[in-house]
Amino acid sequence: MKKRRTFLLVLILLVTLASCGETVSPGTADVSSGSGQTGGGSEGGAAQESYHFIYAADCAEDTVQGLMIKHFAEQLEERTGGRMTLQLHFSGSMGSDIECCESCQNGDITFYNSAVSTTSNFIDKVTAIDLPFLYSDVEVFRKTMDDENVYSYFAGCYEENGLHLLGFYDQGMRQTTSNVEIQTVDDLKGLKIRVMDNAFHVSIWKALGANPTPMAMSEVYIGLQQGTIDAQENGVEVVYANKVYEQQKYMVMTNHLPSSMVFLMNKAIYDSLSADDQNLMDELGVEAVQYARAVCDERQEGRKELMAETGIQFIDLDRSVLDEMKNMCQSVYDTVRADYGDEIVDMLLQAVKEAEE
Questions:
Q1: Mapping DSSP to helix (H, G, I), strand (E, B) and coil, where does residue 93 land?
Q2: Considering just the CA atoms, what is the radius of gyration of the chain in Å?
Q3: Could you say which of 16, 43, 140, 202 would form a disulfide bridge with 135 (CB–CB 3.0 to 4.6 Å)?
C-alpha cells in the first residue's frame, strides 16, 4: 500500500513539473515530498532552491481545515515568488487521515493537518490535550496551546516522531446533539451516543454514564435515522457539514472538548531547508493558524443560525452541571497521569489557570 502511494505521489509530481516545463533529476531531492532545484534568486543575487511540496488529508475543501491549508499554499507561493508551491489533495484521495499522518512522518508528503486525536495514534502523549472539560471555552484552549511551555513540550513530542509543529488550531468546541433532552447528568445515563473511534474518547463518555458507540462519521446520519444511536458529539462545523441537525432535536452546549487540530510538516524536509526558509515556514504557520481561528469563529455563528432555522433547539447547561460532568471524568485524568505522568497534566492545568485570568 505504502509503495503504491509513494509511486502515485512521484507520478503526480512528475506530471506537474512536466506541465511547468521543468525536469526532475534523480538524486536532487526526494520527489515524493519536495523537489529541491536551484532556481530564482534572493535579494543578494544568490540562487535559491525551488520546492514543489505535497499536502494530503481526509477533509473537504470547504471546511476550516481545508480553507486553512489553501490559505497557507497561496501565501507560500506568493511570498516566495513561486519558488515554493504546494500541491493539495483533499477528501482522502491519498489515504485516510491515519495513513496521511504516517505518510507525513515518512516524508511521502510534506504537510498534514488534522485532529490532534488522529496523531495520538503515533504520538500518545498528545492525548492529554483532549482532557475532558479542561477548557471552559475555545479562547482558553487557544491561549493554553499558545503558552510557551505547552507549545514547546508538544513540539518536542512531535519532533521525536519525525514531525515539525507549525501550530495548533481548532474547529470550535465539541457539542452534543441528541434526540433526548439533556439538562442534567442523569439525562446522560445509558444515552446511545456516537463517538469517534478513539479509546480515550470512549472512556470519557463511559465515565459520564453514557453508552458510547464508536462509529465512522459517514455512518452517523443513517445511524440516527434508524435509531441505532440517539446522539453524537462534534463541533458545529462538522454537525452542519454532515447535516446531522436534520436527524436531531437538540444541540446541547456541553463544551466537553475542543475540536483540537494540529498543523504539521515532515521534520527531515524542514531541517533540510535554509534558515531563512525555515523561518518562513514557521511564520506562515503562525499566520495560517490565526487565519483558521478567525474563519472558525465566523462560520460558527453562521452555522448555528442556519441550523436554528431548521428547528433544532439549543440548550445551554448550567455551570454547576458542567462542573459535575467534569468531576465524573476524574478517572480519565487519573488514567492520563498514570500513563503519561503528572508533569503533563499539571502543566496543562497551570496554563489553563493562567489563560482564564
A1: coil
A2: 22
A3: 140
